[in-house]
Amino acid sequence: MRENEIFVSVIVPTYNRAHLIGETIQSVIYQTYSNWELIIVDDGSQDDTKSIIDKFADQRIHYFAIDHCGIFGKVRNAGMQRANGDLIAFLDSDDLWKPDKLSFQLSLLKQDPDAGFIFGHCEQFGKGAIPPPQMETFYSGNVFIPFLVEERFVFCVPSIMFKKEVIQTVGYIDESLIIGSDLDFFLRMACRYKGIFSNEILVRVRKHDQSTSQRLEVASHREHRQMIEKFFRDGYLNKEQYVFLASKQFYKLGLVHLRTKKPREAINSFLSYINLKPLHYKGWIRLGQAALGALS
User: Which structural domain range is residue 180 located in?
Assistant: First the structure.
């Protein structure tokens, strides 16, 4: 199949983003590669999102509205279920693609047709944006361990593009996850398919002036640990890798509880850390800190 015959389905979930989604749509229209469909799934917006979308007279753009659920994975799944493309790409309704995003990634996939997915670097923009970290220039192969254990790549959702056949193997996004559904889906791809990473910055991610709630921080660490346990049970991680990853999540969660003045929860987290790494002094120090907080 020639490159210009590859049909790409771009999935954009949205909710009350009338003030931003027009710019996102325009970044898709500006793509130098034109054989795509844009599937916008509206999670019950109460603003003028639909009227903004209707202004784009492009038959490649498809709008679907669903009842509001607030479950990001469910909204993205609704888009994937409607996808007709050979490849599926993710984009969020507040982020932007650079014009050569699709053409560049397709050229890399053409060079390595055995790869099941491709992802890349990104840059932030907006209030509070930070410069992108330095990463590997290029990598092709099994990215599961290099990503999860060695931290050699960034995880930028709007950079991901994958073969539609991947869904038949790994399934859709887990809708039960609050904050880690995209990461879980990516890791399920990564442990079964060869992937390509490129350091070329093709995506601009909007940085919002919003702080992550304590509830979401706790959910993030809990869900991350559940993922690690699942991959360990399934044989994709060995015991050493599991201990390294799980202990890190317990430690980070303990710090969250210390910062939010929940010493008893912090004690439980640091005890779990010590159970995995009994000889690491920092766990004992943090446990003592949490115990003093519980007494005060």
Answer: 3-206
CATH number of the domain that residue 262 is part of: 1.25.40
Both tokens of 213, joined, read 């709630």
Strands 117-125 and 36-42 come out as unpaired
Same domain, 192 and 51: yes
CA dihedral 38, 64, 26, 162 (to 10 degrees): -30
What is the tally of structural domains in the chain? 2
Distance separating alpha carbons of residues 95 and 207, to the nearest angstrom: 9
Question: What pTM, to 2 d.p., does this model score?
Answer: 0.94
Same domain, 28 and 99: yes
Report strand pairing: 138-141 vs 195-206.
antiparallel
HSE value, Cβ hemisphere, 13 Å, CA-based, for 154: 21
By the 8 A CB rule, do 94 and 20 touch?
yes
- Domain of 15, CATH number, reads 3.90.550.10
Q: Which residue has the tokens 């590669």?
A: 33
* DSSP tag of 4: G
Other C-beta atoms lying within 10 Å of the C-beta of residue 58: 11
**Whole-angstrom Cα distance, residue 116 to residue 166?**
7
Which of 175, 206, 237 is a domain's end point?
206
DSSP for 243-292 reads HHHHHHHHHHHHHHHHHTT-HHHHHHHHHHHHHH-TT-HHHHHHHHHHHH
Ordered per-residue pLDDT tens for the chain, 296 residues = 455 689 999 999 999 999 999 999 999 999 999 999 999 999 999 999 999 999 998 999 999 999 999 999 999 999 999 999 999 999 999 999 999 999 999 999 999 999 999 999 999 998 888 888 888 899 999 999 999 999 999 899 999 999 999 999 999 999 999 999 999 999 999 999 999 999 999 999 998 765 556 788 899 999 999 999 999 999 999 999 999 999 999 999 999 999 999 999 999 999 999 999 999 999 999 999 999 999 98
